[in-house]
Amino acid sequence: MPKSASIEDEITQAAIERLEQGADGRLRDIMISLTRHLHGFIREIEPTEEEWLAAIRFLTETGKKCDENRQEFILLSDTLGASMLIDAINNRKPSGATESSVLGPFYREGAPDYENGADLAEGETSGERVLVSGKVIDLDGAPIAGAVLDIWQTAPDAIYAAQDTSGTSFNLCGRLTTGDDGRYWFRTRKPVSYTVPGDGPVGAMLKAAGRHNWRPAHIHFMLSADGYETLVTQLFTDDDPYLGTDAVFGVKDSLVVHYDKADEGLRLDHDFVMTAAA
Ligand SMILES: [Fe+2]
Questions:
Q1: Interval between CA 41 and ligand 1 midpoint (Å)
Q2: Distance from CA of residue 116 to its chain's centroid?
Q3: Cβ distance 113 to 149 under 8 Å?
Q4: Would you kindly state where each structural domain of the chain is located, as residue ranges?
Q5: What is the whole-number distance in angstroms between the Cα of residue 100 and the centre of ligand 1?
Q6: Displacement of CA 57 from its chain's centroid (Å)
Q7: Model pTM greater than 0.85?
Q8: What is the CATH number of domain 76-273?
Q9: Least trusted range by pLDDT, from 80-89, 97-106, 161-170
C-alpha cells in the first residue's frame, strides 16, 4: 500500500504542537527537538512493529541491569559515543589546557588521602612498577598549590575497586595534594587494558554490531583546585593495542603517554594544565 505522507506528517506535527502549548523554557525546547529527531529516525528506518518492540525490550533490559554497582545506561551512553560528545561540548578548553575525558562508571567517591610518594598499589604483587610524577600548572605555566588529584585505575587483574561488590575497596585509588611547587608524585602498577561489562544488553548490542568491548589501558584523574575548573581526564598508555578502537571513544592524542624505563620499573612524567574557573 502506498504510504500516506500526509497522515505521517500530521502525527509529527501534532506531537510537536502539543509540546509547544505546554511548559516554556529549556524542557520545552528539549522535548520538541527530541520528538522531531525521534520521528525523523523512525521515518528514516521505518522499523517493523517487531523491531520497535525489540528496541523497547532492549531499553527495558538495560534498565533492569542497573543497580548500585552497575550502571548499564551509562555504559550505553559511553559505547554510543554520546558520553564523549557531552564531555566535548561541556569542556571546551583553550589551547594548552589538558584535555578532558569521560568520568566512566568506576569512580568511587571517598578515596583515602595519601602523602606524595605513596604507593597506591601497596599489596599488589603483579604488574609493572611505575613512578608517576609531574606538576599541576596554570595556562601561564605557574604551579598550582593545593590542587587535589583524585586517582583511580585498574589493578593488574583488570578490575577496579568500584567493581568490588562489598562497596568498600579503594584498591589503586587515592587522593594527593600538590605542594607550593605544584608537584605531585606517586607509585603504582602500570594499568592494563580491560573490557567494559559484556554480560548485559549493551554487551549483546556490541557483539551484534561486530564491535569489541575493550578499553585501552589508562589511569583516571580528577583534579580540583580553588579558582580552577575541575578537570576529569585519563592518561592512556601509548603501546596499547586498543588505542585506536576504544569501546567508549575516550582517547585523545594529547592524553596518550609514554612510560620510560627506569632503574626500578617504569617512569611516567606528566604535567596537568588547569584553566581558571569562569
Ligand atoms: Fe577506566
A1: 32
A2: 26
A3: no
A4: 1-46, 76-273
A5: 13
A6: 26
A7: yes
A8: 2.60.130.10
A9: 161-170
